[in-house]
Specification:
By secondary structure, this protein is α/β, with parallel strands linked by helices. It has helices at 14-21, 29-37, 44-55, 64-74, 84-89, 100-112; strands at 9-12, 39-43, 77-80, 115-117, 132-134. It is globular. 33% of the residues are buried.
């Protein structure tokens, strides 16, 4: 062990991934800095949400099957699978936010020791549950 700090890893929520890929001005400076310098992680849960919203006509990202590959490449992100431990992590979360995609991303962040990058300030209410956050 060298005593040097380890590089922080950032789990990007769906909005952040989409905003980042479109160069949107909707992201905070702190979120943009984290994405630019960090080790980015993209959950398959994000892919699932993008796929469902695309199929319902609520989101236009072109072909969502291509979007996933492009997102991983453009964001220099590592994919994170959905694991039983993530589901178990939901049990300890207070019911502050009802969006199931956000809740599983919160659980994944806590279980995996990742910092969640989000545009949703309401998620800061999960900090008492161990969530590390960049808004």
């Amino acid at each position: 062990m060298t005593g040097e700090p380890t590089e922080r890893s950032y789990l990007l929520d769906t909005h952040v991934a989409i905003f980042s890929m479109s160069q949107s001005t909707s992201l905070s400076s702190e979120a943009k800095r984290a994405i630019a310098k960090g080790r980015n992680v993209l959950s398959v849960v994000v892919y699932w949400e993008v796929m469902l919203k695309s199929m319902k006509g609520l989101l236009d990202v072109g072909d969502p099957r291509d979007w996933w590959r492009e997102a991983l490449e453009q964001l220099a992100a590592t994919p994170l699978t959905f694991k039983p431990g993530h589901i178990a992590g939901l049990y300890a979360l207070p019911v502050i936010h009802r969006d199931p995609f956000d809740r599983i991303l919160i659980a994944q962040s806590i279980v995996e020791g990742l910092t969640l990058v989000t545009a949703d300030a309401e998620l800061a209410r999960y900090s008492q549950s161990g969530l590390q956050l960049v808004i």
